[in-house]
Amino acid sequence: MIAMLAVPLLGAAVLVVFPGPARHPWYGAAVSGVTLVLALALAVRFDHTRAARPQFTVDVPWIPGLGLRFHLGIDGISLPLVVLTALLTFLCFVHLVRHRPEQGRIRALVIALLVLEVGMTGTFLALDLLLFFVFFEIVLVPMYFVIAVWGGAGRRAAAVKFILYTLLGSALLLLGLLLVWAHAGTLDMVRLAQAQGAGLSRAVQIIAFLAIGLGLAVKAPMWPLHTWLPAAHTEAPTVGSVLLAGVLLKMGTYGFARIAIPVLPEGAAALAPWLGAFAVAGIVYGSLACLAQRDLKRMIAYSSVGHMGFVLLGLATLTPVGMNAALFGNIAHGLITGLLFFVAGGIKERYGTTELPRLGTGMLARLPYLGSLLTFACVASLGLPGLAGFWGEMLALLGAFQPAAGLSRPLFLVFMAVGGVGTVLTAAYFLRMLSHLTHGRPPAGTIGGGSRGAALLDVSAYELAAWTPLVVLTVVLGLWPKALLSLTDPVVQAYLGTR
Amino acid sequence: METAAEIVQHSGGVIGLSWLTIALPLLGAAILLLGGRRTDRWGHLLGVAMSLASFVVAVIVFFELLGFGADERRRVVELYDFLPGGTLDVKMGLLLDPLSISFVLLITGVGSLIHIYSIGYMAHDPNRRRFFAYLNLFVAAMLLLVLADNYLGLYVGWEGVGLASYLLIGFWQHKPSAAAAAKKAFIVNRVGDMGLALGIFVIFTTFGTIAYGPVLANASQASQGTLTLIGLALLLGACGKSAQLPLQSWLLDAMEGPTPVSALIHAATMVTAGVYLVVRSGPIYIGAPTAALVVTIVGVATLLAGAIIGTAKDDIKKALAGSTMSQIGYMMLAAGLGPVGYAFAIAHLIAHGFFKASMFLGAGSVMHAMNDEVDMRKFGGLAPKMRITWATFGLGYLAIIGFPLLSGYWTKDGIIEATMEHSPILGWLAVIGAGITGFYMSRLFFMTFHGKPRWEKDAHPHESPAVMTWPLILLSIGSVFGGAFLIMGNRFMEFLAPAVGRPKELPHFAPFSVAGVATLAVVAVGVAYAWLKYGRAEVPAVAPRGSFLTVFARRDLYGDAINEALFMRPGQWLTRLAVFFDNRGVDGLVNGLAALIGGTSGRLRRVQTGFVRSYAMSIFLGAALLVGAWFVVGNL
User: Fold this and answer.
1) What does the pLDDT look like over A66-119, one tens digit per residue?
2) Which residues from A are below 8 Å from B88, CB to CB?
3) What sequence ranges are listed for the domain NADH-Ubiquinone oxidoreductase (complex I) chain 5 N-terminal (chain B) (predicted)?
4) Which residues of A touch B143 (CB under 8 A)?
5) Count of domains observed in chain A
6) Which residue in A147, B28, B352, B629 is a FRET match for B164, CA 20 to 30 A apart?
7) Interface confidence (ipTM) of the complex
8) Domain limits at A463?
C-alpha cells in the first residue's frame, strides 16, 4: 500500500541524486510500470464483496500533537481512480520514450511526473482530511513546472493562471476542512462519512460545503471558475495535458464524492441546486465555446468543461444513480480525454500546430491511422452508447430526472433538459471539427507551414503502445459498465444511506 | 389472444446462439478495421461472408421458432448483466419473437444482397475494404437494435446505426458535401435520441425496469398522462431515425453517401427503426390515445410532405429519398392505429424493404452506367440499353404505386382501408398521397428510362455486371410476390399476433371497397398526368423555374430554412456570446487580479531568477494562507 507512494517517490529521489545515463524516459517508464503493477495487484486482491469498506488500510500517527494521522486506504470509489492514475502515468512515460518535448531537460520532466504521480495517487488514497489536502497541494507544484517549462508559447501566463486559481481554491478548501475539524473534532474521513453530518449544525455544514465545494469546483472545473483550464491545457505539453485532463480534474469531483457530500449531507442538500445550475451552465457553455474554437487543444479543453459539467450534475442530484454516474464519468473522461490529448499531441508533433485553419483537411486520406483514432476518440467523447463516455452522461441525466428527496424536481427536470441540449451540442462541435479536419482532400505540398511537408509519419509504435490500452478500456467499459459500477455502487449506497 | 403472449426464458438450440447474428458481422467489422491494408484483397469477401452467415443463423432461428406453438414464440436469451443490481439493475438479453425475427430476416437478407451488389458497385474504390467494414458494423448495430430485450439495448443499437450511417454517408471523405450531410444526419438524429432517452428515463422511473417483458405487460397500470409522455418522447426518437416531420431534413442530404448505403440504411432498414419502436411499444400507445393520434398525424403529414418533395426533385436519389419518407409515413400511420395496423405497418415495411432497395440499387446501376450522373434530366431512353435494370426497376415502380396484385398494392391498400375505418379524414389524405406517389414515381420512371436520350456527350450507358444485376433480380421477386404472400389469408397478422396482439376484428380484404377503388383511380390519374408531362412530351434538359409550389417542393418545404432560422442562427449567436464572456468577463477579472499580483512579484524578479522564484512564491503563499486559516478557524 505504502509502496504505491514510495516507489515513484524513491524513483524521483534517486534521479535527483544520481543523474545517470540519458535514458530517463525508460527509467520513468520502469518506475511507473512497477507502480502500475502494484496498482493492478491491489485491484486483483481487492475484496469486491466488501467494496464499501476501505481495504489495505495504513493508519499511523503522523503529527500526534495536531491529531494528524497518516491514514490511507482503498475502497470502491478510489480503486478505479488509483488504477487510472497509475495507468495514465505509465502511458505518458511510454509516450515520452520516443516523443520528447522540444525543450529537452528530460530528467527534470521525469522527476516532475513522478512527484506528480505521488501527489495524485496520495489524494485518492488519503483517508485523513489534512493528508488529503497535503497531497492535493503536492500536485500543484510539479504541474506548475510541467506547464511553465515544457509548455507552448504562452506557457508562463498559463502556468501563473493555473497556480493562482488553484491556490485560491485550495485556501477555501483548507478553510472548509478546518471548519469541519473544528466542529466534528476529527479528521478521519471514514468516521466523518459514517457520522453523516451528525454533530455538525446546518449552518456550519452549509458554510463548510460552500468553502470546500468552491475549492474543489476550481479544480473540477466548474463554470465559471474554468478559465484557467483552456489556457493550461493549450500550453501544456502532451503528457501534461493528458495528466491534467485525465487525473487532475478528477481530484475535484472525487473530493465532492468523498468528502463534501457524505460528510456534509445537509450542506449538500442546501447547495445542490446551485451546484446543478452551475453544472448545466458549464455543459452548455463549454459546448458553445467549443463550437467557436479554432484550436484543437483548446477545443478539447473546453469539451472537458462540458463533460465535467455532467459529472457535477450527477453529484448534484445526490442520488445513487447520479453519484455512480459521476464516478463513472470521471473514469470515462480520464480515458477518452487522455486519448484525445495524446492524439492532439501527435497532430501537433506532425503538423507543428493545432490551429484548425492551419491544419487543413483530409487527415483520413493523409494519415489514416491517426485520423481514425481521432475519429474514435471524438465519437467516444460525444457519448456514443457502447463506448465508455455514454454511461456517465446518460446516468447523470437519469439522476437529474429523479433527484433525491428534498430537491426540487421541476428544477432538476430543467437541468436535465438543458443537459440534453448539451449532448446535442457536444455532437455538433465534435463532428464539426471532424468534418473539417479529417474529411476533404489533403492539400498538395506542405501543410500548416510545417517544414516536414508531405512525408508525415502515421502513428508510431510507441504511440500505438501508449494509446491502445485507452481504446481497449473505452470499449470494455462501454460494453460492460457493470465492471466499474459494481465497485462504486456499494460505496455510494453507504454514503447516501440508501442501504 | 388479443394481447401479446408471455415471454419465456430460453437456452440452448440455435436460438441460444442467436447472438451470433450480431457477433459475426461485428467480428467482420473489427477484422477489416484493425487489419488495415493487409485485408484489402479479400476484405469485401469477408464482409459478404459475415453478412451471409448471419442470415443463415437467422433462417435457422426462424424455423426453430416456428417449431414452438404460437403462444411460446417469444423467447428471451439472457446474455450478461449490463448494469449491477442495487441501484440500477439491467440485464442484457435478446428477445426472439415474430416481430424481431421478421426484422432480422429483412436486415440480413436484404443486407446480404446489398453487400454482394457492393462488390461490383465499389469495385474501383481504393477504400472498398473500409466500406465493407462499415456495412458490417451497421448490420451488427441494426440487429442489436431489433433483438435487444430492453430499451437500453435498443438505444445502444439505435445510436450504433447512427454512427454507421454517419461513417457511410461521409464515406467519400473528399466531398465536402458528404461531410456536411453526415454531420447533419448525426446531429438531427441526436435531437431525436434525446427524446428516446427521455422516454427511457420515464419508463425506468415508472416501472423500475426497462425490459420489454415487464414494462409492456404492466403498461396498462400506469397513468394515462405518464403513458402519453412516454409515447410522445419515444415518437420524437422515432421521428429522428425515420426522417418523419419535424426531423426529416437530414434524409435528403444523406443521399450523398454511396448508393448501396442509401438502399440499405436510408431505405430498407435503418430508417424503419422508428416504426419498429412504435410497434414494439404498442401497449404504451394503446394506453395513451393522444400519443397514438399524434403518431398517425405525423405519419400522414410526412407521407404527404415526402410525396410532394418527390414530385419536384430532378436528382434521382433525392426523389427516391422523398418517396422513402413518404412510405415510412404510411407505416407510421398504420403503427399509430394500434393492433389493426401493426401487421400492415410491418408488412409494408418488409415489402418496401424489397421494392425500395431494388429501386435504389437500380438507380445505382443507372449511375454506374452514366458516369455517376444523378440528374434525371440527363437520362431518358435508357430502357433498351439496360434491360435488366429497367425490368427490375419497373417492377419496383409498379409495386410502390400499388399496381394491382404486386406487393405495394396489398400492404398499402391494407393501411388505407384500416385508416378509413379509424378516421376518414386521415384515410382520404392517405388516398391523396397514393395519387401523388403514382405521379412522382411515374415521372421518375419515365424521365429515366423512356423518352428521348438527353445524355451527356461522354455517356456510354451499359448494363451492369452480374454481381450487381442478380441482387436486383432477387429483390424484385420480393417486390412482386412479398405483399400477396404476407397479406393473403391474414398470414402475417396471425404470425405477428403473439408479439403484438391481435386486433378485435380481423380485417377482411375487400378488393372493391370504396377506398380501394378510389385509390386505384387517383393513382391512375397520377400516372396518366406524369405520362402526359414526362413520357409523351419532351423533358427540358434544364429545369424550368416553376411555380411557387414547385420551388416550395424543390426546397424540401423550406425545412432547412426553418431549422436555420430557429436553431442555427441563435446557436451561432450564443456561441459568440460565450467566447466574448470567457475572454472579457471571467478572464478579464482574473487577469486583472493576476496583473496585480504579477506587479508585486515583478519587484522580486530582480532578486530571484528562474523557477525557484515561482516555486518559493507559491509555497510562501500557501503557507501564509495555511497559517491565516489556522487562526481564523481555530477561533470560530
Assistant:
1) 777 888 888 888 899 999 999 998 888 888 887 777 777 788 888 888 888 888
2) 321, 324, 395, 485
3) 83-132
4) none
5) 1
6) B352
7) 0.78
8) 2-445+456-496
